Amino acid sequence: MNGRMKILRRLCLALLLTAVCVGAWAEKLSADGLYIRYLPDGTAQVIRVTVDGGIGKEEYDALPEDFDFRVVSHDGKYGFDVGLHPFVRPAWKEAMPKKMFVMSDPHGDLDCVVSLLQANGVVGRKLEWRYGKNRLVVIGDVFDRGPDVTQIFWLLYKLEAEAEKAGGKVDFLLGNHEPMVLSNDLRYTDTKYKRLADSLGVEYASLFGADTELGRWLGTRNTIQIVGPYLFVHAGLGKVFYDLNPDIPFVNREMSRVLFLKNRVRKAFSPLHAFLYGSEGPVWYRGLVRTDAKYRPCAADTLQMILDRYRVERIIVGHTIFEDISTFYDGRVIGVNVANRKNKQECRGRAIVIEKGACYVAGDKGRIRRLF
Known about the structure:
- The chain is of the alpha/beta class.
- The protein folds into 2 domains: 2-77, no CATH class; 93-370, Purple Acid Phosphatase, chain A, domain 2, CATH 3.60.21.
- The protein is 32% helix and 21% strand.
- Strands 6-10-11-12-14-13 form a 6-stranded mixed beta sheet.
- The protein is globular, with a radius of gyration of 22 Å.
């Protein structure tokens, strides 16, 4: 009898754990989308998650030329309208504007993005472009961790068109999490997105594939960009990059060429692509901001040769997390990623503003101090 009771208890416990897991997985989805996919027969499919957690699907023979839609944050706190617009790959090298606002690694945290942009006059109360002929640069990594990934992508997409009309610019560069997710590597992806993909019976990566509106837009984003005397890249450039001496427009094209492939396929595509998507490539290399041998730190003279080759004065990176905006090599490298858990819990976003040759650390209450 005791043996049977033990078996029954174990069975009941197993059933209880299963019910808890299923219940957790079955939690209501939060607002998300739109996901716009262009099908091979010329039709279009539109998917959204509504504010009450329902999944809505619509089919169009073709999207109207004036197609627009409302984007709402996961908690309903923010909302803005988006209209589809044509886009091309941004120029890889451009002149310095009067002002430039630079941030990185938002990782689905729309609250942080909005607080930084509003406090520094980049966007207004309705999240409309307010930065005139100036420039916003986001150095990669919208994907993963947070619940408003799609919303941030659409916000940048929208601001790009609004800035263009005003004579300004918005640049979003590829980080390491963009190719990770597009390869369906979801180790850091918020659970809501995995549930959505399972509900639709698709890979999450396919919602941003080359046959989608946001996928097409991501496929035209640069990996390296120069604005005035500043070079922007998500992680860094080191000796291997210098020795290869690749042309920056070529790097941008080749990163995009294999962006929608599985990572193992990218690396098998060619030795060049294995390097570009590897640990010493531009979206992973930490040797400009880390001195441990395992990161293969860049020697100061090599850094100077890189700066001289591309005729810039500084390299600005994201990727590696710091407690605050940090400088290296006597200010020739600036790390702007402060998106760690502690900073997020304290609502402590950070960015930099570059104006008239000076650089300032900025937060969610505006400028904090002069960096140089």
